[in-house]
Design goal:
This protein is of the alpha+beta class and 112 residues long. The protein contains two helices and seven strands. The protein has one domain. Helix content is 26%, strand content 38%. Strand 1 and strand 2 form a beta hairpin. The radius of gyration is 18 Å and the shape is extended. The protein starts with 6 loop residues before the first strand and ends with a helix.
Amino acid sequence: MANRKVAVYKQVKVNGVWVNCPPYFNPKNRKPENDKVLVKGVMEVHPEGDWGIFYYENGKRKWKAISPKYAPAKYAAEVKELALQSRARGLVVTEKTDGTPLRASLQAFLDD
């Protein structure tokens, strides 16, 4: 059965090399913070880089950059995990392809 887990990591520069690091969770409230990551098990502050998700699709490991903030990346991970679970159960999942902004759609409607 396919791996349906999605992990959230931040791509940061460590000694001039870009590496993917997991989030650091504050032990007091067990919540992650935007710029804090674990580098070789030690908490470091890295304001540079983007949060993204790792997942397996068709047997290949994929990385998708999401945002400089943790919350959107966590939400994207939850959505992607649900999509992978749905595909494993035989449902067809498609990505949103309509990129028409609401303002343009409303203007086109009002022009008619």
